[in-house]
Amino acid sequence: MPYPSDRERDRPWVMRTYAGHSSAAASNALYRRNLAKGQTGLSVAFDLPTQTGYDPDHELSRGEVGKVGVPISHIGDMRQLFDGIPLAEANTSMTINATAMWLLALYVSVAEEQAEEKGLDRDEMLAKLAGTTQNDIIKEYLSRGTYVFPPGPSLRLITDMVAWAVQHVPKWNPINICSYHLQEVGASPVQEVAYAMCTAISVLDAVRDSGQLPDDRFGEVVGRISFFVNAGVRFIEEMCKMRAFGVLWEEITRDRYGIENPKQRRFRYGVQVNSLGLTEQQPENNVQRIVLEMLAVSLSRNARARAIQLPAWNEALGLPRPWDQQWALRMQQVLAYETDLLEYEDLFDGSPVIQAKVDEIVNGARAEIDRVQAMGGAVAAVESGYMKSQMVSSLAERRRRVEAGEDVVVGLNKFDTTEPSPLQAEGAKAIETIDPRVEREASEAVRAWRANRDASTVDESLRGLREAAKTGANLVTATVSCARAGVTTGEWASALREVFGEYRAPTGVSGASAAGAAGAALAGVRERVAKAGEDLGERLRILVGKPGLDGHSNGAEQVAVRARDVGFEVVYQGIRLTPSQIVAAAVQEGVHVVGLSVLSGSHLEVVPAVVEGLKAAGVTDVPVVLGGIIPPSDAAELLKRGVARVFTPKDYELTEIMDEIVTVIRKAHGLTES
């Protein structure tokens, strides 16, 4: 996007809403409506099977299809997703990481088909494509958990994409270095800046060392690196964080990589404001939170976001409706077009208060960058568990402050009396829901797709992909061939799994600490845990499980840390487990309670499967408790189906949750309270 000179009115940023669900057809209709309302860019949310490389009919996809995004299984789905939307004129952000190369190949293939239909030159069409694939796998090991392959092969996929994109789709950002999710799992501003910069260094070093581009084109690589950040409600601090990002990126690109062109050194970022800070209690308060967070990334002209997407007020309750997304878009439009924000030069240049805060973040981030680089860089810091432990510990401290009332969250731990909300009036459909038929229809559709294609062409393209993966060849070309042949998402990922293997990242729980968590309440629960253990003749054991493909593990990790702090023996094996694997672990470890965490909306499918699996295994005295974003009607249904307790975001006191779990265990074993 061109930058105006000083004294010109600044151009509005690209306005997006993060959207996609159910099916490619339903999402296409949603995108068209949003574009008609004045949205200037698309932000595609993919469902978890697509993000983790599975087809809709895979066992791990159960309950996940179309829930948190759109399922894209093959090129036919991608055609449908962008039907009637000219890709040469679009600005498309795709939140996809482990399978980013695959989705870019599908997108490029559809763009080429559009060029052919219009009689346009293929290369001219590709040169017009604008947008980004998130493609930051480092933060997936630390936060969202949609990684597939080990860090080394994952970095290779990113490297190949960056090199290929610079040569063939020069306006495309092949990666967003994504600090957004680091903040969601507890990163301080210093950690968020430092770890994002460490990731960028790892990617740039890998592309440079791959030799796929001549040295005189490396500036083009740097110029296509973009960032995707979070903005919390402490909007002055967040604004200073963005200025600090710019300072450090200028230093790194100039001093480490010798980039002379100031345009190529420009810190370019998009933002979604902080979904983690949205509350289930008094959700109408989320509106003012979102507006304040938007100001953090728009007030300072010299550090202004060039693309913004806002969550909806009710995302802590479930999937937002189209009207809710419209409300979020209108917030951006009012700020950009009704106010005078874009008419002035930077409002904060020369402020000693702002400069002092920027310097504090910059100096702290420099020290942490040096620490990670001394370990061998971001990949080594992931593999050792260092960065993950830092995140888990930081979030544990944040939760402690909220629980202690040191950090005020309006409507949650203070000012919690409320009038009934007309936004949630009885009978009002407060969230979007996904029809269970979506998964069944998607599974049937992908099976039909497989049956109606040229099997020999598919086999040949997959064989070519496997062979290329065993060499140093750039994998984008082989991936595009697979896309055109009709290969499915699951088949592409499976072929690479065969060559690269799979990976389970360190959980960070064993090395995490929850300093300051002790107190009268914690001591009281610790006594109850010890007493229940004495009554049962063994130490209490809890299995914390993440069924399905939901990789947002910070809640499960915090439960595991607090359970350990109150005296439980904790069994936590990380993310992405089938119900049968969780049942087997519960039986093998002889646990006294199973705690499940589900944030993706798959709870009605995967949680009863665990309850029924325990019964089938003859385990009748191990209760199942659940935590997650669970609508009240679903919670009632789960309780009927054998779940002992359901905890939602309003149950933020982890020590109280531990106390309730002890009560559940005593009841399951017929123990009376002493």
From TrEMBL:
It holds the Pfam family B12-binding. Residues 539-668 form the B12-binding domain. Keywords: Cobalamin, Cobalt, Isomerase, Metal-binding. PROSITE patterns: B12_BINDING (PS51332). PANTHER family: COENZYME B12-DEPENDENT MUTASE, METHYLMALONYL-COA MUTASE, MITOCHONDRIAL-RELATED. Heterodimer of an alpha and a beta chain. Belongs to the methylmalonyl-CoA mutase family. NCBIfam families: acid_CoA_mut_C, acid_CoA_mut_N. This is Protein meaA. It comes from Allokutzneria oryzae. The lineage of its organism: Bacteria, Bacillati, Actinomycetota, Actinomycetes, Pseudonocardiales.
